[in-house]
Amino acid sequence: MGDIRQSLLPRDVLSAAKELLYHLDIYICNMVQSGRQAPQVDTKTLDLVEEFILHVPKDRNAQVRRMSALQELHLLEIMCSCFQEQSRDTVRQLVFSALFSLQGNQADESRMALLGKLVSMAVAVGRIPILECAATWLQRTHRVYCIRLAQVLVDDYCSLVPGSVPTLQNIHSASPRFCCQFITAVTTLYDLSTEELTPPLELLKMIVSWIQEDPRLVLITFLNTPLSNSQPVSSLDVTPLGGLVRWCVKAPLAYRKDKKPVMVNGTGENEQEAGPLFSALHLSVLQVFMLLPNILTEKGLFGRLALLQIESVAALISDLSRLLDQADKHTHTISDESHAASQLALDRLAQALQVAMANRALLCSRGKGSRILNLLQLILSGPVMYYNNIHTPPLSFSPHAAHSPIASHPTLPGHAPHTPMAPHPSPHPQYPAQPFMTGLPFPYRPGH
């Protein structure tokens, strides 16, 4: 396609971009029809995309070509039509990749800006082919850029335009794959560490309603991903389970009534409004864990694949220990509501870990399991000690306690019998000691 550059140069920016999209579609169609294995778009074609669609000049002395806002809107409409009219998914995916795969150069910022506008428009006008391509992009791209795309959609539909949330909510039925990836991205973005990184109430309501309606939604990417294709190390998790557990556990402390209210769309939202939503979300996450044995067994992965990563659990426990330590340091000014919030966070952590381990969503080797138990015990025993990762040397109690997560499960062949760990006496009266690994002692309490 390199020979068409001279014909594009005299055209205005919109006409040149439209012509290049037309030639790009033909070029990729021919490449796919040739039966070439793993077709790749050549470098010259990518250079044309950067020059005439992303407007990154290839010549230092060349004049920068820019579109007006109206021209850019027309380009987005043209792109929507191109993807909608192309019937072959393979061609659509290759065109999308040629336009938006990050190359590690100065054109990437232009790619991200155009991508955010295109996906936002696709949500608004229901262009399912673009959402499907974007779902694949989210699965293959570095998580830093994935959360940037998610932030654009949250800003557009949950913050900037009042009443536009139902439009975004429709992606649940329009493209479950994209919806699943979007949930994974926003749970990665909003880690509840600050007010700015606490999910807007409208977003929370939407995600809770999605998962309540269809708990399997959070497993869509996992169910549709060939097991032979390993996820890139820096990509999003294959499910949002880790992020959802983090939300549920940290929420009681992030939304405490005695803290400054979280601002959403200019109005204060506190624990009274968010609390029941996180409670419902916690129950839904536990229900998803309980679906996993049959799903993993069907795939031949029961006991072999962990959908809740142990590194994620270790990071959550470390975060929770810091939050509880901060609450301890201010007990002279914090009300009983703070103590109740801390207890609820501990209850949810215990419930999530036990249900995940019972259903083999979380797998622990002896060494890693004992280190997780160490961190859990340190939360209760105080003073809180901070651990940056899971490789902290274990304490002196028995490692066998970590290997048998649920007392009702039979002892695995070749492993020592499990001896339940006695509850550790807690010097903090507001945090009663919890028998974390001896069954399911914590009933779900929807009233919290």
Automatic annotation (TrEMBL):
<feature type="region of interest" description="Disordered">
    <location>
        <begin position="401"/>
        <end position="437"/>
    </location>
</feature>
<dbReference type="InterPro" id="IPR027844">
    <property type="entry name" value="INTS15"/>
</dbReference>
<dbReference type="Pfam" id="PF14964">
    <property type="entry name" value="INTS15"/>
</dbReference>
<feature type="compositionally biased region" description="Pro residues">
    <location>
        <begin position="420"/>
        <end position="432"/>
    </location>
</feature>
<protein>
    <submittedName>
        <fullName>Uncharacterized protein</fullName>
    </submittedName>
</protein>
